Amino acid sequence: MSLPDTRHSLLARLAEPADAAAWEEFVQIYEQAVFRYSRGRGLQDADAWEVVQQVLLVVHRRIAQWRPNGQPGAFRSWLLTTAHRVCQHAIRDSRRPDRGEGGSLPNQVLLAPADFPETRDWRQWAFCWAAAQVERDVEPATWKAFTLTALDGLTATAAAERLGIRVGSVYTAKCRVMARIRELVRQLAREDE
Predict the structure, then answer these.
(1) Could you tell me how far CA 62 lies from the centroid of its own chain?
(2) Which pTM value belongs to this model?
(3) CA 91 to chain centre
(4) Do the Cβ atoms of 165 and 174 come closer than 8 Å?
(5) Are 145 and 151 contacting, i.e. CB atoms less than 8 angstroms apart?
(6) 22, 16 in Cβ contact below 8 A?
(7) Can you say how many angstroms the Cα of residue 16 is from the centroid of all Cα atoms in its chain?
(8) d(CA 88, CA 116)
(9) Which of 49, 69, 99 is the last residue of a domain?
(10) Can you give the CATH number for the domain in which 27 is found?
(11) Model confidence pLDDT, tens digit, residues 103-116
(12) 54 and 4 Cβ atoms separated by less than 8 Å
């Protein structure tokens, strides 16, 4: 995967979740590159877009901790490694005969069993509570992009068409909302201990 040069100023801005312009720019720069890489690994369009989304989620969760090591291309190398790992996971999943169709990403990403108390009811309640908090804090279009893709199971392309926005904007919205929900659930889990 050939990636463009990365400005450290953009990476620093990404560490601030509220900087939507930085995320929009980041998505514009890297979305197609990660998508092409995923397609080049043999994934179909829908699966490749799912890889893009998961890579964006990883970046969103980890960018605040990422530090340059002084080597040229360090971020691109990390991003490529991340894309490769997510792609390999998607390829393994696509080969499973019991693979479900969509709808499971919020549970996999937001409610990983190791992160939260064991009771399913608590996790379900915590997700609903956090989602309600986030819905009040984001723009209606951002929330709608999230619900159409993460909860209703629409593809990012279908959601973008329905909302009249770019596919990258749908991924950005979903990534930001999911990260914020996850953060609130983690805070709640720590308070509940």
Answers:
(1) 11
(2) 0.52
(3) 18
(4) no
(5) no
(6) yes
(7) 15
(8) 26
(9) 99
(10) 1.10.1740.10
(11) 444 434 443 333 33
(12) no
